[in-house]
Amino acid sequence: MKTIAALIFCLTASAAEVTFHKQVLPILQNHCQGCHRAGEAAPMPLLTYKDTRPFARAIRAAVTSKKMPPWFADPQHGKFSNNTSLAQSEIDTLTTWADTGAKEGAPQDAPAPKEFTKGWTIGKPDLIIDMPAAHKVPATGTIEYTYFVVPTGFTEDKWVEKIEVRPGTASVVHHIIALNRPKGSTYLKDAPANVAYIPDAKPTISGKKASGDGSFVGLTDGLVEMLSVYVPGGFAYDTKPGQARLIPAGSDLIFQIHYVTTGKETLDRSSIGIVFAKAPPKERVVNAYIRNDSFVIPPGESAHRVDANVEIQHDTRLQSFMPHMHLRGKAFEYVATYPTGESQTLLKVLNYDFNWQLTYQLEKPVLLPKGTILRATAWFDNSPNNKFNPDPKSEVRWGDQSWEEMVAGFVDFVVPVEVNPARIAVQARK
């Protein structure tokens, strides 16, 4: 009995020794502070004991329910370098800290503060390209996609290591796509530079629409290319050593912005931050998306499936994923079927959350040999059980607004620098 009592005492004493500076702060630095600091998405900072102590019980509830940190990839498929989820031991540490008085401990036990660049997650940009002026977003109404064409003035090709899009006023920005338009492209040819532009007809950067299921890869003839995307909860776009994205000499950068109204007239001036590669790369990273815009989601359906398929035309490596749907999005999956006939699930998001549109970066890129079929599958909940559903009685089709839907499986492809990105993939044959 004395032995058991001694063991219980030791366990209790050990639990009581969990302190903020020694055990808790390293977890917050590695998993939380990227968002939980001034100017970022989270509602409160978690940098210091004074910041964190009032939220000890809330932190306990969030980590035990696995609501935080947000991470939705099924652990059975793929390993990801930017996995923010907590190990069970880390959950236990935060839980014990909250349950034992949320003690501060000795400040000398704390790790060095993590350094951040204010306003950026990529560090200090080498170049910041702003919208030409603040844009007035009205208080009410539906706003079509708004475009801002900004000449770069580059007199030589630029290779980009990291690129981040930042909204000036996040409350009115649904998303921003940063597009590269090289000299000579006819995309948005009527758009004047440095002013807001809403085209009469919806432009496409995706080439000819595919027949049948509407699947195609979001690349054109190699002229217009997506460089980065801002979405709620998303990550900045970066590359691995020896890789970079290309912005050719004479290019314009285009901000494609989907604004939303908040009941208050608001000004926005968004920005793009760029870190250039320090040496010429061996591989080019190309961001694209696999899309199906020909679907119809029936009213009341709780798990309606939509597929989009492309066939790889050149040996290519796949490096990251970002599933994109709207308010009826339920789950998303990427599957590769290789020329051998073998299939592999590369990513499965079991519980898609419109408020946290994460990018999933593979620890090791996956080789997609020529002839591989890459499929993106989305499931939608258009039933009354979906609390975010704008109208379960509506038939839903592709559309820009959040009450409409999209099937867009963003990916980062990696190819040798001499490969034309337009040759990477085409609509898959039936």
Query: CATH top level of the largest domain?
Result: Mainly Beta
| Structural class label | mainly beta
What CATH calls the topology of the largest domain is Jelly Rolls
* Biggest beta sheet summary: 10 strands, mixed
Shape: globular
Oligomer: single chain
Distance between the termini: 72 Å
Q: Under the CATH scheme, which architecture of the largest domain would be assigned? A: Sandwich
Spell the H/E element sequence.
Answer: HHHHHEEEEEEEEEEEEEEEEEEEEEE
Helix content: 10-25%
Average pLDDT, rounded to a whole number, is 88
Q: Return the domain count.
A: 2
Give short descriptive properties of this protein.
430 residues; mainly beta; Jelly Rolls; 32% strand; globular
What is the secondary structure topology, with strand pairs?
Layout: H1 2-16, H2 20-31, H3 49-52, H4 56-64, H5 88-99, E1 127-130, E2 135-137, E3 146-151, E4 158-166, E5 173-181, E6 196-197, E7 215-217, E8 225-230, E9 237-238, E10 243-247, E11 252-259, E12 266-268, E13 271-276, E14 283-292, E15 304-312, E16 316-324, E17 329-337, E18 343-349, E19 360-368, E20 373-380, E21 408-416, E22 425-427
Helix pairs in contact: 2-5, 4-5
